[in-house]
Sequence to fold (170 residues):
Amino acid sequence: MNRPVFSTGLRWLWLVLVVIAIDFGSKQWIMNTLMLHESMSVMPFFNFFYAHNYGAAFSFLADKGGWQRWFFAGIAVAIAVALLVMMYRTEASKKLNNIAYALIIGGALGNLFDRAYHGFVVDFIDFYVGDWHFATFNIADCGICIGAALIVLEGFLTPAGKVKNRVGHD
Fold:
């Protein structure tokens, strides 16, 4: 099946670049503004807190000696390639799916760059209530989470049975 790229979900690749650019810029600003483990109060429940994450989400496997750097990099590449294929196979008009895929790819590649270049991921977004702090994260993580939430939302908006019933009644 050979069709124009702009009729496929690849039309939404610009969003990947936006996520990467905002992620990269915000991490560079944090690294140039704060010292490692330094905190900057933004609101009564929100800080910028410069941290290095050698693992994955919630610092999973952060203390395992370095092999996880390339393991998580490989996962990021595999996810990005798989989602690019899915975007190519999806029509450009399926906006929610393609936006979700682009956000996840942008987030995965943003964190992949950190792992490859620094050996760790720069995290800095710190939400808290009293003494309880949520795990520190970054813009790339936001892209991944928002993209995943959009995929779940799409599942509720277009249940498989609803699609089958529409096709059966045409």
Remarks:
- The two ends are 25 Å apart (CA to CA).
- Helices lie at 13-33, 67-89, 95-118, 139-157, 160-168.
- The chain has a mean pLDDT of 86.
